[in-house]
Amino acid sequence: MHAPKLDSFYQQYLVDHDTARFVRWVQQWYTVGTLERLVRHPARLTRRAAVLALGLLADYGSNSILGRALQDEDRGVRMLADQALRSVWCRAGSPQDREQLALVIRLNSLRQFEAAILAASELIARAPWFAEAWNQRAIAYYGTSRYEESISDCREALELNPYHFGAAAGMGQCYMQLANPRAALECFRQALALNPDLEGVRASVTQLERAIERGK
């Protein structure tokens, strides 16, 4: 299996960081299906290029391929897969659904959590299968200290998207606030099983394991 053109496109991208040109070249030569197959290519350079391209071009349909790439032996592939997943998680549904999700994300970033909850609830009512809508409402609930509701939404996000390491980590943070270290540890371990490069989560696991051991 060879991908010389994709490799050369990626190498040029590493030099000039011209995302638009990289996307244009890839679109001229590759379909999303071919890029998904190249995620399993023996050469790590090709796998990196394919994952980067999917993060720029693919929609939620590539979620499972990118989720499995989080377990790649190459750290570069894993890092690109992390970034790609965060992008494709927002590319489900209709244009209206995506616009509504973008509003929720913006409100959360501005810490306007009550408004984010309302906007996310509207989206969930219309598109209950949209995992990222549940995750974003979970973030807003966390911001208003409604930890049980946040946990419930994180669980729903994980049920809909079993690769959602962010939802697993979010549950862990909620359980920390609820002073339930064992439940938090379980959630953080789940997040790490999905995405081994979550260093902050790994540090939390180490701290919790030590604290629980001391408390025995």
Rounded mean pLDDT is: 96
How many alpha or pi helices? 13
State the helical fraction: over 70%
Element order: H for helix, E for strand:
HHHHHHHHHHHHH
The CATH topology of the largest domain turns out to be Serine Threonine Protein Phosphatase 5, Tetratricopeptide repeat
Q: Using DSSP, what is the number of strands? A: 0
Overall CATH architecture of the largest domain? Alpha Horseshoe
Under CATH at level 1, the class of the largest domain stands as: Mainly Alpha
Regions with little confidence, pLDDT below 50 for 5+ residues: none
Shape: globular
Structural class: mainly alpha
The separation of the N and C termini measures: 54 Å
Largest sheet: none
Summarize the structure.
The chain contains 13 helices and no strands. By secondary structure, the chain is an all-alpha fold.
Structural notes for this entry:
The protein is mostly helical. The chain folds into two domains: about 5-90, Leucine-rich Repeat Variant, CATH 1.25.10; about 95-215, Serine Threonine Protein Phosphatase 5, Tetratricopeptide repeat (Alpha Horseshoe), CATH 1.25.40.10. Helices cover about 75% and strands about 0% of the residues. The protein has helices at about 5-15, 20-30, 30-40, 45-55, 65-70, 75-90, 95-110, 115-125, 130-145, 145-160, 165-175, 180-195, 200-215. The longest helix has 17 residues, at about 200-215. The N and C termini lie far apart (about 55 Å).
